[in-house]
Amino acid sequence: MNITSVSKKLATTLAAVVAITLASAPSHAFSSVNKSTYTASVTLTGPGSASMNATLYYTETNLPTGSNALGFGAVSLPAGFVKSDSYILVTGTVTAGNGRGIQIYTDNTNAAFAGTKSTTTINPAGLVRQSDGLQTLPLAWSVSLSTSTPPVFGVTPNQTNQPVTDHLYQWEYFMDAGQTVDNSGKLFANAAPYIMLKTAAGYQTNTNSWFGGGRATGYVYTQADFSGAATSSTGVTYATNAIILEAFTQ
Length: 250
What we know:
Elements: E1 13-22, E2 40-44, E3 50-58, E4 69-77, E5 81-83, E6 86-94, E7 100-106, E8 127-129, E9 136-137, E10 139-144, E11 172-173, E12 196-199, E13 202-206, E14 209-212, E15 217-225, E16 237-249
Parallel strand pairs: 1-4
Antiparallel strand pairs: 1-16, 2-3, 3-6, 5-15, 6-15, 7-12, 7-16, 8-9, 8-16, 10-11, 10-15, 12-13, 13-14
């Protein structure tokens, strides 16, 4: 069946940018070019409906960032998973029934978005090396029902066929709309469980487990894995201008 989406991409885009430095190099604070307040809003009708609104808040203060950029600051290498400095407050409504919800993914091969595009369709999701587009660093998301119970940061996200009984599986790797297959053999598909943020059953707070029912608010956290960045990557920038939140029906 066809996905129906209204103003899905440019109107529901977030940016994530990170500068890489060696541990011995001076660090520089993350600076966002666009300081306008980010919101995304879409209402869909049909056989059931889905709607959402999204705004960025700083993780440490719970204050609005006034920006559309998720920041990682200056990361000193070597490093593993590093959390973003902000979360996405999503207010969403999904009516009962199949074929509607809110999904999250990147769109790093789409020329409609600014910045260097990923040159591969094997695994273009995550943060793209802006110098040439030849490498991406994995980006992961997790949603909580409260800011007082955020996910455990620094742990490896869920892989294919892993159980859902551990806090490790609060995290999901981002998939990309241009992705033909990733390292675990997954293809990108609209409304697939591994990109679904919310259904009528609630938010996906653990892999394929939905909590909150009709609760409207969810708090989406992100972390990026820098273990694949060479220590010689001083001054290299990794970024994405296409983190997509999309309410849909089908």
